[in-house]
Amino acid sequence: QVQLVESGGGLVQAGGSLRLSCAASGSTFSINAMGWYRQAPGKQRELVATVTSGGTTNYADSVKGRFTISRDNAKNTVYLQMNSLKPEDTAGYYCNAARIVSGLKRYEKWGQGTQVTVSS
Questions:
Q1: 109 has which bridge partners?
Q2: Would you state the pLDDT for residue 1?
Q3: Which residues contact 79 (CB under 8 A, 6 or more apart)?
Q4: Rounded distance, CA 65 to CA 77, Å?
């Protein structure tokens, strides 16, 4: 019932920046947490950053100080500002939306992904 569409990926040189966007549509009222995950070839999908409806954020240690997650509730959009990009950031980036109640993930939806490639 919730649809997520990511955009903003591309090819960038090391040290450069990209801003990813994830636009949500449908029954967005059910969502109280959103995040970005990434998956590189041969590796498992890993958490990059999350933000709750209340504005609480958390980041993977590997991106702290370089990436910033934010959301615009009026536009039903979450963003990931990525600065000082490194080749190891190269991955498919996926937007995730969830409804968490009493610590349990009641609902989860994934976007189709957007590719980020960082050249050295």
A1: 97
A2: 82
A3: 19, 20, 21, 22, 69, 70, 71, 72
A4: 22
Q: 3-class DSSP state for residue 99? A: strand
- Neighbour-count burial for 64-97, b at 16+ CB within 10 Å, e otherwise: eeebbbebeeeebbbbbebeebeeebbbbbbbbb
| Token pair in block for residue 80 | 């990931």
Q: State the Cα–Cα distance between residues 96 and 120, nearest whole angstrom.
A: 29
Distance CA 24, CA 90 (A): 24
What pLDDT, on a 0 to 100 scale, did the predictor assign at position 76? 85
Strands 114-119 and 10-13: parallel
Q: How does residue 27 score in pLDDT terms, banded at 50, 70 and 90?
A: confident
